[in-house]
Amino acid sequence: MKTLPQIAILDDYQNLAFSFGNWTNVHKNASITVFNHHMASQEEVIRTLQPFQVICVMRERTPLSREILSGLPNLKLIVSTGRRNSSIDVKAAEELGIAISITGYHASGAPEITWALLLAMARNVVAESTSLREGNWQREVGVDLKGKTIGIIGLGNIGSTIARYAKAFEMDVIAWSENLSLEKANEHGARLVSKEELFKTADFVTLHLVLSSRSRNIVTLSELNLMKPTAYLINTSRGPLVNEADLINVLENNKIAGAALDVYDTEPLPVEHPFRKLDNVLATPHIGYVTKDTYKIFYEDTISRLEEWLS
Fold it and tell me: Which of 128, 169, 190, 230 has its C-alpha lying 20 to 30 A from 121's C-alpha?
């Protein structure tokens, strides 16, 4: 009897993988195991995934380091959703003869969740909704966006989309990044300022950078202490862009009005983490790309990559 290739689908938190696309041909030609829980330790990942020839990963939920890849002698193919997955050691995969295939991506999710969080934070939507459900009525006084200043760190595809959203809400748009030019800032309707001026003057600071050795901890206590006590920080990009301990310190001491976060240093976020408990934090579980249109692209493309490999 022919032994079928073994395929692992990792971190399908909502158990939805088979709800998108037609998996019939893949099921016929391979044995598929779906993992709904996140494997936190390197040892557990290696121990669990050793039998598999193919691993399908959702963005950056499970890192695939050199150590992990070296411990998976049967692995031949990694299918990763999205255009970029910095948690895969690509060089190690190449040296070990492991192919990497990527899927398409739906680009609207990240800017949309950013704006949703910004609005929800400015108007105290979660607190007001919770209060209403508890039998109360109006609780807080919201913040207007019109006339306020938004500081955008990183004016790439997502940051420039945020600039358009802000303009529609009649906000003043300022921007900074290490390589941002005056021409590009003007092109997207933003005023180029220094990093220091952005943190000093913005009512809302939002980050839209790729995580790298250069951008890690690009926001520390030095920048956070420049912010106005009425200002808000939004991070839907990558957790380590902001020094987590410094942000917790500032929030615990109410030095800024609040933070809206969709990304964290450790994901899933530990149960006892301060971000789960602080009243001035609006936190969501990295749902920027968790949309039906995005998942449709992710999983239909995953199916296509698997069918190509199996054939």
Answer: 190
241: its two tokens: 């862009």
Q: Mean pLDDT, to the nearest integer, of 82-106?
A: 92
The pLDDT tens digits for 18-47 are 999 999 999 999 999 999 999 989 999 999
Nearest Cα neighbor of 251 from 235, 271, 266, 268 is 235
CB atoms within 10 A of CB 201: 17
Reply yes or no: is the peptide bond before residue 229 cis, omega within 30 of 0. no
CB atoms within 10 A of CB 11: 20
* Amino acid at site 64: L
Catalytic residue list contains 38: no
Helices (H) and strands (E) in the chain, counts: 12, 12
Of 67, 112, 267, 307, which one is the catalytic site residue?
267
* Dist CA 150 CA 127 (whole Å): 23
- Mean of the pLDDT values across residues 262-289? 96
261-273 pLDDT, tens digit per residue, is: 999 999 999 999 9
* Annotation marks residue 43 as catalytic: no
Measured distance CA(167)–CA(177) in Å, rounded: 19
Residue among 47, 13, 53 at smallest CA distance from 30? 53
Q: Given 61, 188, 238, 305, which residue is catalytic?
A: 238
Find out whether 232 and 122 touch, Cβ atoms under 8 Å: yes
- Based on the residue annotation, tell me whether 267 is a catalytic residue of this protein: yes
